[in-house]
Amino acid sequence: MPGAHLLCSRILGFIQALLLLCSITTVHGILPHSPVECISSGCILRNAYGAWGDRRDCSALNVTYPTTEEQLRSAVSYAVRNNLKVKVVTRFSHTIPKIACPQGSAGAGATLLISTEKYDSGIVIDAANMAVTADAGVGLRQLIDAVESRGFSLVAAPYWEGVTVAGLISTGAHGSSWWGKGGSVHDHVLGITVVVPASKSEGYAKLLMLEAHDPMLNAARLSLGLLGAISKVKLSIEHRFKRSITYEFTEKDDLIEDEYVEHAKKYEFADITWYPSKHTVVYRYDSRVPLNASGDGLNDFIGFQPNSILISESVRAAEKLLESTRNANGKCLTAATTLGFKKLVGNGLKNNGQIFSGYPVVGYQGKMQTSGSCLYSTRIDTSCAWDPRIKGLFFYESTAIFPASAFGDFIRDVRKLRDLKPENFCGVDIYNGLLLRFIKASSAYLGQPEDSVVVDFNYYRANDPSNPRLNQDVWEEVEQLAFFKHGAKPHWGKNRNIAFFGVQHKYPKFNMFIAAKQKMDPQNVFSSEWSDDILYGKESEKVEGCALEGLCICSEDRHCSPQKGYHCSHGLVFKEARVCRYLQPSMSFSSTIA
C-alpha cells in the first residue's frame, strides 16, 4: 500500500517537528488521576495505564484513607473482624500485574481497599544514625527533597519518581548500580513497621516493628503487599553528593556481552541502552563527583516530560496506522528520528536545569537520580504521554532479570534474531530500545540471589485485545528467550502474565517467604486470587486469543488470531518457543503445534 506508506511518512514528519518544538518549550499539563473511583455500588481500582493484563476491572466494596498509623491499624482490624479481603493501594498505582486487586474472578465480594494517599506527612531524619523514616504514602520526590534539604542523599531510586516509599520497596523498584548496597531500594531498608492481622484479644490487628536483626525483615523488604499493611519505612542515607552523567552513542553493537561487566564496575550508576534495529548502543557514564564540582544539572528524562495531548494522540494515531498497514519501514523511520532527537537533547539531561548544552551534566544526586516532571504540570493541554484519559501511548513493558553470568548468552540470541530481519526490531526502538541496568545480590527472600542485569523493553499494545500486533512473534520470542530458555526472573511490578509462569521455582528462598507470609498473615487477608496467580506462577486456562495479550503461550492457532492471519508457530532462534506469527494464507499449516 504505497499510498498509505507515504501518508504515514508525512504524518510522522509533522509529528516529529511538533515533538521537537514541544520539547524545548515549557509546558504544563493535567495531573494523574486517582486510581480508585467509587460509586454507590462499589469501587474500581485501575493502574496508571488504565488497563490490567487481562483488561478486566478490579472491584472492591469500599476504600478507606487513613492519615495516621492508628487509623491504618484500625482499618486492618475492621477488615479482619469482618472477614474482608484487603489490598493496600497508593495514589500512583503504577504496578502492571494485578497484585493490588483484592478480589478474584467472582467479583468484588467481601473486599476493602486501603489507600495510603493521605498517609504521607511523616518524614523523620536521624542524622546521627544516617537514616530517614517515612510514612508509607510519602512520594519518592517528596522524600528526596526533604532529605536533600537537610544535606543528605538517598543513594538508590528507580528512574521513575511516580511511586510511594512503601509501594516502591514492595515491588522491587530499582535504579542501577553494582556498587555499595546496589541499585535496588529495598536493599537500603533498615527497618519496616507493618500492620498485620491479629487475634481478637490483640484487637484483630497489631504493629510489627522489624529491624535489621529480625529475619522477618528479609520477607518484608520486598513483599508484594502480601504480609500486611506497611506503615513506615526506614532507609539509609548518605551525606549529600553530586553526580556527573555523559551518554556515549556508539554505532557498533557487537561488544555488549564483552563490556557490560566492566562498564558496571567502572561507573557507580552505569546503564546501557541498546537500539537493535539501529545497531546503536548508548553507554551511560555516571559517577559521583566532589560536592564543589561546577554544575546544577537536572535529569528530566524525555519520556517522562509533560507532552502536548495533541502530540501524544497524534503519535499514537500514527503508530496505529503503521500497525494496520503492516508498515515496518515507517516504524524504522520513526525509530531513527526518535533516536536522533534523544542524542540531540541529551535524553532529557539539562545543564543548570534549563537546557542541554553538552556533556558532562553535573548536578546534585536529588536532581539526577530520578525524574517524572509530567506528574506535576497543571495546564489541561498536556499530560504524561500514557495517561489513559487521552488517546495517547499504550504499551507493554517487559522486564527480565538475569544472573550476570547468564546475560551474555541472552544478548547473543537476541542479536541472532535481530540479524534475520533488523526492521522487525524498529517497534521497540521507537520507545527506548532495550535498557540494561544493574542490581546487586539481595538478602530479600524475593530479591535477586546474585548480582544481576535487568533488561526493560516497551512495545506497542493494541487498544482492541483481539487485534494482533505487527511483528508480534518477535517480541513473544524475545520474552520466551528471556524467561524460559535463559531462566530470567520477572520484575514483580511489571510484565505480562506469561513472564511469571513457574516463577516460584526461580527463587531459592521462596519457601522462606511463604513461611513468613503464613506467620504474619495466616488467614491470607492480604492475598487474592490475582496475587496468588502471580506469586505462585500459575498458568491460566487457554482460550481463544489468549496469547495475543500474554495471558498464555499458544499451542493451537486459536490461541492467536487465525482469522487475521496469525498462527501458532515455532520460534526462529529459540525453536522451543511458541509464538503467534503472521502467515500468508498459502503458508498456514496445522492448527496445533506439537
From TrEMBL:
Matching InterPro entries: ALO_C, FAD-bd_PCMH, FAD-bd_PCMH-like_sf, FAD-bd_PCMH_sub1, FAD-bd_PCMH_sub2, FAD-linked_Oxidoreductases_BP, GULLO2-like_C, GULO_Plant
Domain of life according to the entry: Eukaryota
GO biological process, one term: L-ascorbic acid biosynthetic process
GO CC annotation: membrane
Pfam families: ALO, FAD_binding_4, GULLO2-like_3rd
GO molecular function annotations of the record: D-arabinono-1,4-lactone oxidase activity; FAD binding; L-gulonolactone oxidase activity
Catalyzed reactions: L-gulono-1,4-lactone + O2 = L-ascorbate + H2O2 + H(+)
UniProt similarity note: Belongs to the oxygen-dependent FAD-linked oxidoreductase family.
Name of the protein: L-gulonolactone oxidase
